[in-house]
Here is the input.
Amino acid sequence: MTQRTVFYEPLSPLSFLRRSAFVFRDKTAVVYNDKRYTYSEFYQRVNRLASALKRVGIGKGDKVAFLCPNIPPMLEAHYGVPMLGAALVSINIRLSPREIAYIINHSDSKALFVDNEFAHLITAIQEDLPNIKTFVNICDVNDSRPLDGPEYEEFLADGSPDPLPNVIEDEMEVIAINYTSGTTGLPKGVMYHHRGAYLNALGEALEHKMSSSSVYLWTLPMFHCNGWCFTWGVTAVGGTHVCLRKVVPEDIYLLIEREGVTHLCAAPTVLVSMANYPRAKEYQMKTKLNVITAGAPPSPTVIKNMEEIGAEVTHVYGLTEVYGPHTICEWQAPWNELDTSEKAKIKARQGVAYIHAEFVRVVDPAEMTDVPADGQTIGEIVMRGNNVMLGYYKQLEETEKAFRGGWFHSGDLAVMHPNGYIEIKDRLKDIIISGGENISTVEVENCIYEHPDVLEVAVIGIPDPKWGEVPKAFVVPKPGTNPTAEEIINFCRERIARFKVPKAVEFGELPKTSTGKIMKYRLREKEWQGYDKRVN
Here is the structure.
């Protein structure tokens, strides 16, 4: 149904801003350094952005790209661009110029907004962007204008603060295109629709008990699944967005204390940096800090450490293709009686579907039959529902492959516990098959995380002439410690089966994405160099 009637209005998260600007007119909507915008001012700025874009020829079905960190223009883009019926293309700020050029050109973007800290990435490829008709400089760190185009505030000044007519006729219209990390090939453009963004935003607000008194700190990149739809969810309840240019533990704690932050999202690696920040316990939390973590399975140790400094950690799970989180480790009252370690083990599970998501299974991918709910049998997580992408932009074959059997295939391997909660054991590409035995890298990593000298760890399979492949651990020690490979290996021998114990340990930094995910494929590339293929 696409026509408005007395009983039907297309769902769109744009309605959240209209409502909050009406209801919470003088309430603080956005905080960034010394800037504070009320909801009325936020709405006017968004209207100016949409109006100015319209003046330069952007309209329904067009694409507008942003290369920008978590500052107000990036948040404003989540409303101003789709107000015209256009789609937002938010680009990972840590990509290479070549990757950025691919995304801009593949998405057919016509306008490009660039924070001047990252302008050098664009000047290197500017001649390779034939479709970009408008460049806009976002001058946040300095006043330089490296691109041939107006400064952001000047661009807004050319627009009108008055609301534009609602042009969203079909809630299945594309609101954003988010590009995957491209770890197994070129990035794929994941198409989000207005309906999915609306429902996912409400799901986030509902599951995490957000209200108009909520203060959300932007530790999660907005370019990652549109900030898991919190870009729209915080606005839906009239909460306050606290923007953060760089994720630095000291700045995080300062803002938590100063602004009374109630919610933030972060990958486990960010939580590691927060929990191990030496001055963490000096800061005073005005209210309970709700931490939502995803991006990689968090170890129980990481969760326990965060809760010891006063946070309440909720584990969620999802992918770009499902607007970010799809499942949540929904807490049950009887579990409050468990000790801290047991609680942490449960919280490390990926849980059950969000209220709005509803459908998630663990299946034998060949037969599409459910695995037994025994906590042991491994299968693939598959999903369906209103928060599944429309498909990959201009990649029909890849879309059909992802949707085979009428479900979205995640590529994640998990077990189903008797209570219906799922627990990830590995990615399909990460599982180690050693002498015919399956080894979960997550299980081995969780074991190593218990070692008191370990800050971070990643486990992969490396070539072995006898077993095909065996586990190897890459460890980042805590500052001031100096564990040995022998210590780590002996630690594991006391806790897990011998065939799962790493046969080698290497110390050093781990390669990561901008969202904090450890890039295991980089580690594998190094270890498997010179081999025709990895065994599995």
